[in-house]
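Lecture notes, structural biology module. Today: joint structure prediction for complexes of two components.
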Amino acid sequence: MDVMANIVYPVAGLIGLYAFVSLASLVWEGIDRKLVARMQRRVGPPLLQPLYDFFKLASKETIIPNTANFMFRAAPILALATAIALLAYTPMGFAPLLASKGDVIVFIYLLTLIGFFKILGGISSGSPYAKIGAAREAAIMVSREPAMMLALFAILWRLGKLRVNKPFSMEVFYQYNIWEIGTPLSLVGAVILLYVFVIWLASEIEVGYFNIPDAEEEIAEGLLAEYSGRYLALLKLTKALKTYIAASLVVAIFFPWGIADYFNLTGLPANVVNLLFHTLKVFILLFAVQSVFRATTGRLKITQAVGFLWKNVFLASLIGALLIAMEVIM
Amino acid sequence: MRLSPLIPTVLRNMFKKPATNLFPATEPVPVPDNFRGQLKYNVDKCVGCRMCVTVCPAGVFVFLPEIRKVALWTARCVYCSQCVDVCPTAALQMSDEFLLASYNNYDDKFIPLKPEKVEEIKKKLEEQKKAKAAPAAKKAAEKKEAGKEAKK
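The predicted structure, tokenised, for the full assembly:
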């Protein structure tokens, strides 16, 4: 029985989530492309275009450069594996499959590790374009994470004060949320942190201002310059999964409400309904952060982006975190 | 961070119809009146004055002296329409056709005057020459006869 509860159910759940999320995130990419096309008064590709692209890439010849070393081939697989493992720690309308005390560290670690594997693959290709992309990705990665970490830890610490049984777990968001603290200061702090998380999400999925490491027009797709065929398909899928996961985090922190309770559902049906509702919320959030942002802004220079993330976003994160913490401290 | 001034435009655009022409599903965008499409050659009107050969910047035309016509390969054409302007008999005309993609550079549609047709014209010309020559020979023969008879 213990084996069932501890191993079999989580594994089945992870496989199910993986199947669902990879489909949902690729479909979202199709919706995104369609929406941006409509914003520019074009018709756009069919909704399932990213799926066709995936299968086409997977069926194409994979070219390995002479200058590439072993990590060039391992990195896409490791990146996708990390993304799949991350699904077990992602709140998706219900508590994560492997929720435990302090799993927020694992979440942040795995989320950053995906970017790290991308960098590793890029610098292993031997192409100077990919190396420029890798340097940019590294610069933007170290600039964007502190703001998110500060905000996330402040929120989790504040919610931990409300007597939760698993502090610093992603599960906490489904017991209490940031709007329930209720003091005026914390509400202002929450709005500021929402801004921080929205910018973080945009820089995590590299759209609009932050489309810097993969800049097609400048450095020939940057990190992905040398990738082709199956490995490119894996990296594209990883990117789609990461988009969904990062947006899931923001949705879980700021909009964690489920609808299963209104229908008096429990158990598996409740989870499925909440997952679908969560997906809808993720799509709405991504519409604002990805589609509109992508359609209306160009990219910054890497120096501007780093400056923006430190001087603006990190500062906002600091202020928001202090406001959230204020009544506990004083 | 200032919000982008494009946002209202973009959101309004989302509810407008796409301003595109879905070509293979619909008709292509109509061409204007003086559109320069594929070059059309009317062999019968051609008098073989060689003006088009002189004026063509892309070397589309080759003069065929035996039949006094031009052979042309429009895959090379740059659509400058100079041959049309210069042709005294209007044997060359620009058409409306522009969907000219082809798998083969030497497709029939790029060669209006084909070698078989050239042979045909050549034969016809020879026949005509013969027909012209035949009465003349008869006359000559008759003259000879007449001369012979006169001698007698």
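Point to remember: Residues 2-39 of chain A form the longest helix (38 residues).
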